[in-house]
Amino acid sequence: MTEKTVNPFVKLGLELGPVVLFFVFYGRIKDEFFTIGGVEYAGFIVATALFIPLILASTAILWWLTGKLSKMQLMTAVLIVVFGGMSVYFNDERFFKMKPTMIYLLFGGILGIGLLQGKSYLRSVMEEVLPMQDEGWMILTKRLTAFFAALAITNEFVWRTMSTDAWVNFKTFGLTAAVFVFFMFQNKLMQTYAVTVEDQDT
């Protein structure tokens, strides 16, 4: 299947929609308990159970609309299924709360391995939409590796020391805002090392 063009707002809605729905649904049932199959589940676990098919559905629709999924999207979906499924199966919210930590450690670790080899794996993923010189890619990759490590540590601190409500707010808004701010502050780097049409023609 060839890659197709999709409305960026539709794409953004599919990527963020499941997270927003999880936040809304959790807010409605967070203080409730549900008995299913003779086992009592807290609202957080039920919201997690519903989040898994939502993320799978949104990922499948993205693939259907675009004809392509990035490795990051696939790995994120797999980790959500694994850690979300473990939370539901063991009736233990800690597994799902650890999921962002695992995602950021995995992505940061992959980028770090590339850096040790003198390569930017980030470039192979983003070069088509963000053409930059080699030096710019290496700088951005180093920064993003450190950023992922910081997010993993922060997530561990929040879920281990704060309430579930605080973690849900952090996961829904804090992490999203952090990623946005990080890339906003990379604008100067991207402009400095941008590859122009003249560079591509030489």
Automatic annotation (TrEMBL):
Keyword Mitochondrion assigned to the entry: answer is no
The organism sits in which domain of life? Bacteria
Q: Which InterPro entries match?
A: YciB (IPR006008)
Where, by residue number, does the polypeptide cross the bilayer? 12-29, 41-65, 72-90, 102-122, 143-160, 166-185
Q: How does it sit in the membrane?
A: Multi-pass membrane protein
Coarsely, its chief localization is: membrane
Annotated signal sequence is none
Subcellular location per UniProt equals: Cell inner membrane
Task: Provide the Gene Ontology terms for cellular component.
Answer: plasma membrane
Keyword Metal-binding (UniProt): no
- What this chain does, per the record? Plays a role in cell envelope biogenesis, maintenance of cell envelope integrity and membrane homeostasis.
Check the record and name the PANTHER family matching this protein.
INNER MEMBRANE-SPANNING PROTEIN YCIB, INTRACELLULAR SEPTATION PROTEIN A-RELATED
Family stated for the protein in its record: Belongs to the YciB family.
Q: What is this protein called?
A: Inner membrane-spanning protein YciB
